[in-house]
Amino acid sequence: MYFTFKVIFLISIIGTGRVGSTIGFLCVSHALDDVLFVNADKEIAIGESLDIASAIPSSSKFSISATDDISQIKDSKIVVIAASVGVYTTDRAEHIDEQVKMIKSIAGDVKKYCPSAIVLVVSNPLDVLTYYFQKQSQFSRFKVIGIASSLDSSRFRYHVSDKLSVPQSSINDAFVLGEHGDSMVPIFSKVTINGDSLLSKISENDVDEITSSVRDYWKALRNHKSRSMFGIAKNVFDVINCIYASQEMTVSAAILLENEYGESDITMGIPVKINNNGVSEIVTIPINEKESELLKISASKIRHQILSVSTE
Q1: SS3 at position 307
Q2: Same domain, 139 and 41
Q3: CA–centroid distance for 200 within its chain
């Protein structure tokens, strides 16, 4: 479209709304690789790519382009799915049937055109869509990764920092597990502040208050702006950057479980190590009895959502 030379877009982003376009901006401005925007509305994708093209560093050898032709993702190394059929207002699972239908279609295309890709799912309901993408594509469960629990973990760290008036850099191991939704489980028992246990510094009421604030973060944010984009985009970019740098990072992310944390045949957020091959290791962290019970409740909710999807 903009180039006379052949380009293989090794980072393809399907869905170029606020989140998808911001992820693309971060990839391009950091000169990670060639980026392709794929969107049902081609004109929107072109507009975003033209805007972001102005952020390409002068030292970069990479490009950005846009299309409504999903076959152009051929041979992509990373596929990010940030597409949506509509905006949710009260619950991330509002459009679950339509979203699952969409993700199944995308899974078929990704399997056809780039069967070796690492797939990062961002669309909601995150856990359900990651599950159905993996089942439809039959990709390795270690190459289909839902990126959202790391965002929840960032929000957890933010609220701990705010509660204790300490810098976020002093907070370690602030993981959120389970659903990317109202049943997510912040793991307080693992968190340390400058080496000291978080639970030694806060009350049970503080635990409940922080948990509610993390779960309702997106609702509070929408009192001030229409939708979030920067936090999730940065979390996705960090994973892409890790893959390209052949480094390893430990984050909370959603993958299909096979008897990890006592659950099987569902997808939910758990700590994992990610490298240039996708998920390299599932990390088992100790959690207390209360957190374990809450995680079972969260898993049960995800399973119910998976089974609730219409097959028509």
Answers
A1: helix
A2: yes
A3: 31
- Residue 91 belongs to domain spanning: 11-146
Can you tell me which residue has the tokens 């390209």? 244
β 64-67/35-38 pair status: parallel
pLDDT one-digit tens code per residue, 47-106? 999 999 999 999 999 999 999 999 999 999 999 999 987 666 665 656 789 999 999 999
Whether residues 174 and 107 share a domain: the answer is no
Structure tokens belonging to residue 94: 């509002």
pTM: 0.94
Spatial distance between the Cα atoms of 110 and 116, rounded to a whole number of angstroms? 9
Distance (Å, rounded) from C-alpha 221 to C-alpha 228? 7
Residue 165: pLDDT over 50: yes
Alpha-helix runs per DSSP H in the chain: 18-29, 42-53, 96-113, 126-137, 149-164, 204-215, 217-221, 230-244, 289-308
Q: Quote the tokens at residue 84.
A: 């949506």
CATH code: domain of residue 186: 3.90.110.10
Asked, for residue 3, whether it belongs to a domain, the answer is no
CB atoms within 10 A of CB 255: 26
Summarised one tens digit per residue, pLDDT across range 187-225 is 999 999 999 999 999 999 999 999 999 999 978 887 887
Task: Please say whether the dihedral angle defined by the alpha carbons of residues 98, 100, 104 and 110, taken in this order, is positive or negative.
Answer: positive
* Measured distance CA(281)–CA(253) in Å, rounded: 12
| DSSP structure class, residue 142 | G
Q: What is the chain's mean pLDDT, rounded?
A: 93
Say what percent of the chain tops pLDDT 70: 94
